[in-house]
Amino acid sequence: MNTFKDELKSLGYRLMFTTVEENNTLYTMIAKQNDPADPVLITGATGTGKEMFAESFHKVSGRKGEFVAVNCGAIPENLLESELFGYEKGAFTGGLKDGKKGIFELADKGTVFLDEIGDMPMWMQVKLLRFLNDNKFYKVGGTKEIKVDVRIISATNKNLKESDFRKDLYYRINTYPIETSSLPHEEKLKYQVIEWTLGELSKGGQGQDIPEEKFPYPEIAVLIRKGGKPFTDEAASALLRHPFPGNYRELTSILKCSLIKCYARNQDTKKKKYIITHNDLHPDVFTKTKRGDSILDTPPEKFLPKLNELFIQKYEMMKKQKMSQAEIAERLDLNHQNVLSTLLKRNGLVKLKKKSSS
Q1: What are phi and psi of 37, to 5 degrees?
Q2: What DSSP assignment string belongs to 234-248?
Q3: How far, in Å, CA of 260 to CA of 184, rounded?
Q4: What is the largest CA-CA distance in the chain?
Q5: Pairing of strands 136-138, 111-115
Q6: What integer pLDDT is reported at residue 345 of this predicted model?
Q7: What are the structural domain ranges in the chain?
Q8: Tens-digit pLDDT profile for residues 164-204
């Protein structure tokens, strides 16, 4: 049986989590799990790989059935019960004439991943809690009780304990609590993750034994393997400045775009240079610095309202990423008094007094 680390490696996300120290305890927790049927609750910001974790849990559990993922917020409320539990013939108008098996039945001996469980309606939470008690259920319109062997792994980016989510269900699904980490903020660590992710994408997520000629972007892959710099200094600085509110999902999208643009640029030139430049980066990387978006471009009379509005937006975004107050202060440069003074001076709102010499 593969270990959890093996599964992470095979899915192409090894460094994403091994570089984040607090998640190293996940390996120990999973290695010691006694019952592969116990529920797991995975929490974390959007784009931090919650479904990848869930699939890895399934693979190392040794369960023989399928891994089936369901987004609780994407299924219409009136169809959620029939999707999960199935329905009998003639249960409702518009259904299949022979009825339909639900996800729990299809995943027998396997794992069901309930993504965005915080969006599940209250009445459905009651039915899920009843199912979790003994893994028994009735199809919609059915009279025969069905028993299955299914492990439930749930995920959310919400704080269920402080929401109106049913507390009894919360305690039932929270046997193994797991919290995924956002993209690191410390520059050295953040760059490691960015470069490693670029290397994985340039290899198509393939293992080390795949011949280089089969990599989709072999020149970049080889450059990284040899310890070269895959980014110009300007491009690297821009990526390090970008906050990546979408975390690893956004990072992957931005780097895929960069690879495509880099290779397209080299198709039309004899002197090829496979390195990600400032111009190869996704436009989203520069959203903050476009003219008109910068607070320094705001007219003086609108500066203070704009500053307050911008601060609130940034603060709320960082709180959603579960950053500490100290991290937020550091990211907003509030620990440097000269930043605000400089902004005020540039907008002509205040004249800074010179310190008198003693």
Answers
A1: -100, -10
A2: HHHHHHHH---TTHH
A3: 25
A4: 92
A5: unpaired
A6: 54
A7: 4-179, 187-343
A8: 999 999 999 998 888 887 888 888 888 988 998 899 889 88
- Tell me what pLDDT residue 75 has: 92
Query: Can you tell me the distance from the alpha carbon of 196 to that of 16, in angstroms, rounded to the nearest whole number?
Result: 8
Which of 249, 252, 290, 255 shows the shortest CA–CA distance to 276? 255
Residues of the chain where predicted confidence (pLDDT) is lower than 70 = 1-35, 205-209, 287-358
Q: What confidence score (pLDDT) does residue 290 get? A: 38
Residue type, 78: N
The token pair at 127 is: 């039915």
Rounded Cα distance between 18 and 184, Å, is 12
> Mapping DSSP to helix (H, G, I), strand (E, B) and coil, where does residue 145 land?
strand
Pairing of β 100-101 and β 86-87? antiparallel
Provide DSSP, 5-52.
Answer: HHHHHHTT-HHHHHTSGGGGHHHHHHHT-S-TTS-EEEE--TTS-HHH
Q: Classify strands 176-179 and 151-156 as parallel, antiparallel or unpaired.
A: unpaired
Per-residue b/e over 202-227, b at no fewer than 16 CB within 10 Å?
bbeeeeeeeeeeebebbbbbbbbeee
Work out the percent of the chain whose per-residue pLDDT is above 70.
68
The arrangement of secondary structure in 4-179, i.e. its CATH architecture, is: 3-Layer(aba) Sandwich (3.40)
